[in-house]
Amino acid sequence: MLNYRDHAKERGKPLPSEPLIFLKPPSAVAASGEPILLPAGVGRVDHEAELAIVIGRTARNLAVASAGEAILGYTCFNDVTAREVQDREIQYTRAKGFDTFAPMGPWVETELDPSDLAVEGKVNGVVRQSSRTRQLVFPPAFLVAFVSRIMTLFPGNVIATGTPAGIGPLVDGDTVEIAIEGIGTLTNPVRSVRHRGKEPIFPALARTASRSVP
Fold it and tell me: What pTM did the predictor assign?
């Protein structure tokens, strides 16, 4: 979600007039300490440090003023993204939906004011992302209300709020940390995945699609 003013500038995009949302599958979820798996053949894979909202009750058609009643708490989230795939496709499902591309944790903080928190992303101890949630274009309550008017929210649903500037690539052997003031630190090692077959899976699919789609 493009939702930080500094990240919009970094990506060369205008500030959005409304949130751009997408879904990540449950298979993308990884806990703190579990490895982020880099798929073969997708090119650059980036970290994205984000504050995530955890829903605490079933809710739909919420007003912004009452959206906080549906929030259980907040956690750290890494919106791992296959950047080259994202840049060449219209929808974000493939770029953001690979297994382990949604690490979150280390726990849910239920007593927190999200309006001005420090958000930091580190790779191998080096700070790459550093911002505050006051830079958000759409704050958490607005996002919860917005999404609730599209789909019913259920306990345990997670809404990531977007990433600040400083996104960067991950490689095999890295350790990435997402730290948010008042919550803690989400830590994940990074590992490459090798397919058993020798064929280049994704380029092959791209060539097939280009021949079969008018």
Answer: 0.89
